[in-house]
Amino acid sequence: MKTVKLITAASALAISAGAVQAGEIAVIVKTTNSNFWQNVNKGASAAIEEVDAHTMSFDGPAAESNIADEVNLVENAINRGVAGIVLAPSDPEALGPAVERAYQSQIPVVIIDSALSEQYQDSYQAFLSTDNCAAGEAVAERMIEKAATTGKVAIMSYVAGVGSEIGRVGCFTDYIEANSDLEIVGPYYSQSQMATALNQTTDVLSANPDLVGIFGANEPTAVGMGRAIVQAGRAGDLVALGFDGNADLQQFVRDGVLDAIAVQGSFAMGELGVETVVDILDGESVEAFINTGVVLVDQKNIDSDEAQNVLY
């Protein structure tokens, strides 16, 4: 542990000393094939427009499950000597060594959306995310409020072990179990594939005709879940809650297929992520954790300014 701290301190000094150097800020996300991550791109692009000294690149694998591809993107960014990295890690362990190498190479790293494992916490300078545990609890509270007092609630999750999933789904589950008599079914993991989530939800609905609630824990999973609910003719007869806020999910809320969606500040993740790296490169101190927030959107508030600022 002492060695790591010494390396970290030395790197921090080197980063500060190199603050005047211009260069590329690499924004690397879990996948580019998602409106959520494209909204992160919009936020990052908005931030870089205000900066003269740096440029920005945006990249990610074809799918969130392509973890090795994301590792390679980080390694490539290090090899080409970028000035800083904004990273949404798809796996808390697999991305750790690459982040460690980046920091030891005097490249500041800001993590967004999903945490790395605790052993790598000295390898990056800031973590920007929804408080996923608080968000999961908020969705669970809504479920308890809207669903029957007893019965089954299914969890349609995405990638097991991802930092955001651990907090979001774990705290949803814990809150339901501690505050209700509802029975948890699942979780089922879609690997963030909409078609997989659709098929899984179809099977869950068929096997559990007495289901009183269902939770889709990220964008592609919630979209697949919503489509399965419509196809099964179950819209409106169980409490369906989603996570994230693309056009499909917004329409499901308007149509009453989903009771509500918990929407993260994806634009803010990109914007604040780039701004935070720039601050580090300028030698400024930054907060270790920055909460980018979540808004619960339903039919009543979907057209409000608060909701429209996070929907995409």
UniProtKB/TrEMBL annotation:
Keyword Chloroplast recorded: no
InterPro entries in the record: Peripla_BP_I, SBP_2_dom
Alphabetical keyword list: Signal
Primary location recorded for the protein, binned into one broad class: other
Signal sequence interval, chain numbering: 1-22
Sequence ranges assigned to domain Periplasmic binding protein in this UniProt record: 25-284
GO MF terms held by the record: carbohydrate binding
The organism's place on the tree of life at top rank: Bacteria
Entry-linked SUPFAM superfamilies: Periplasmic binding protein-like I
Keyword Signal: yes
One Pfam family matching this protein: Peripla_BP_4
Gene Ontology CC: cell envelope
Compartments it resides in: Cell envelope
Family: Belongs to the bacterial solute-binding protein 2 family.
Protein name (record): Ribose transport system substrate-binding protein
Lineage start: Bacteria, Pseudomonadati, Pseudomonadota, Alphaproteobacteria, Rhodobacterales
